[in-house]
Design brief:
heterodimer; A: 244 residues; alpha/beta; Rossmann fold; six-stranded mixed beta sheet; four-stranded antiparallel beta sheet; 10 strands; globular; B: 219 residues; mainly alpha; MetI-like fold; 81% helix; 0% strand
């Protein structure tokens, strides 16, 4: 069974139908990139998988946890799948280490000492072991995003959702974050990422999803999607991207 | 005719100023506690609670404090409840203070970026945990300067209680004037004492604002 099962998902904001029946299964260990124009619904889809948006129709299951709008179900879902945001969203009043420790202690009731050990391991993993006591505003954007990744990993999720995680970064900081993501992929982490980094998607992802007007328009391995786009919409979209 | 030295006047005013200070503290602390309880309802999930607090705030912000004092003093008397001036003054000021503090604090809670809610939710935290560990610690930093600043309004608000006969600084000013026939000297001193109470509060509000901002320069 797939780790993430998205079935006939529909979502509307007021009169606008943003997702018009999405079907997508993500296998354990798979790395899936979601590409598409802004407004195509790709971020909304990702946010639904984590329960930050509720769906109007269809179902989303992650490793047996279903998206249902109450605190208990949402918590169960969110323990299975972590999320990383475009704007990092670190807690500014806590040091990097405390950022990583907080949810372990509060949500999982992990004792402080274990949570700290885990935080140090995870910060080490993203190359920031020496920044344990630094506050978010003392870190560069790339470092903040890596702390955010460490924070999500410390909850030991089965999958990570990455919502344009390099879009708010200066160009020279993009690579340090992508390198971390690449390592996660190599370690077998299941990843769903909305991205504009076409080269990265091509290199690292197992499958690429092209969304257009609230639907999965094309889907396939990167060689196919990038090398041999079947629809004019995808061709036009890729034509507008300079990198590929 | 008796003569009064400046010291006589000042001494009597300072004695009365104690009651201004006490009433200010009672109003501010009581209003603060009530404000917290109201804030809990105001930003909570229950619609009835939010509506109630909104109505409460509109009522107390939309009527003069003087009317509220009259209502507390004379209104309860209509029901045969004998309300001493100090109780009516304290009660009205507490209710009035709470109505302003709850709105100041609501603004502070809402000023915390939406991403903070989303990030803490995505880590599995529930509403109460988000509030306690993520939102309120940030909101409190924002709230300290305006809250201290508002305390100045409370101190000045206590002057109105002289009208229902509570003997604090302003009332004492009137009494002393009636005895000395030196209104300019007396009210000049009254104003100076108010200023001596309020200025340190305004100043510390400014200093706190700068301090808390420095700790948080990029956010």
């Amino acid at each position: 069974m797939s780790l993430i099962a998205i079935t006939e998902v529909k979502k509307r904001f007021g009169d606008v139908e943003v997702l018009k029946g999405i079907n997508l299964d993500v296998e354990r260990g798979e790395v899936v990139a979601i590409i598409g124009k802004s407004g195509s619904g790709k971020s909304t889809l990702l946010r639904c998988v984590n329960g930050l948006e509720m769906i109007d129709d269809g179902s989303i299951m992650v490793a047996g946890a279903q998206l249902i709008d109450d605190e208990l179900h949402l918590k169960a879902l969110r323990l299975k799948v972590g999320m990383i945001f475009q704007q990092f969203n670190l807690f500014p009043h806590l040091s990097a280490g405390r950022n990583v420790m907080l949810s372990q202690m509060v949500v999982k009731k992990t004792p402080a000492r274990e949570a700290e050990a885990m935080a140090r391991r995870m910060l080490e993993r993203v190359g920031l072991g020496h920044k344990f006591d630094a506050y978010p505003d003392q870190l560069s954007g790339g470092q903040q995003q890596r702390v955010a990744i460490a924070r999500a990993l410390s909850m030991q999720p089965m999958a990570l959702l990455c919502d344009e995680i390099t879009s708010a970064l200066d160009p020279e900081l993009v690579n340090e974050v992508l390198a971390v993501v690449k390592e996660l992929a190599a370690d077998g982490m299941t990843l769903m990422m909305v991205t504009h980094e076409m080269r990265f998607a091509r290199e690292v992802c197992d499958r690429v999803v092209f969304m257009h007007q609230g639907r999965v328009h094309e889907i396939g391995p990167p060689e196919e999607v990038f090398g041999n786009p079947r629809t004019p919409e995808l061709r036009q979209f890729l034509g507008a991207q300079l990198v590929v | 005719m008796m003569t009064f030295t400046l010291w006589d006047i000042l001494r009597n005013l300072l004695l009365a100023a104690r009651w201004t200070v006490v009433l200010s503290l009672v109003s501010f602390i009581g209003g603060g506690l009530l404000g917290m309880a109201l804030l809990y309802l105001r930003i909570g999930k229950a619609r009835a609670g939010r509506m109630f607090v909104q109505g409460y705030v509109e009522l107390f912000q939309g009527t003069p404090l003087l009317m509220q004092l009259f209502l507390a003093f004379f209104g309860l008397g209509l029901f045969g409840i004998d309300v001493p001036a100090w109780l009516a003054a304290g009660l009205a000021l507490i209710l009035w203070t709470a109505a302003f503090l709850v709105e100041i604090w609501r603004g502070c809670v809402e000023s915390v970026a939406r991403g903070q809610w989303e990030a803490s939710a995505s880590l599995g935290m529930g509403y109460v945990q988000q509030m306690r560990y993520v939102i309120l610690p940030q909101a409190v930093r924002v709230a300290v300067p305006p809250t201290v600043g508002f305390s100045v309004q409370v101190v000045k608000g206590t002057a109105l209680t002289s009208i229902i006969g509570f003997v604090e600084l302003s009332k004492a000013g009137t009494v002393v004037t009636n005895a000395t026939f030196e209104p300019f000297t007396v009210y000049g001193l009254v104003a100076l004492i108010y200023f001596a109470l309020c200025w340190p509060l305004s100043k510390s509000s400014q200093i706190l604002e700068r301090k808390l901002n420095v700790a948080h320069r990029n956010h």
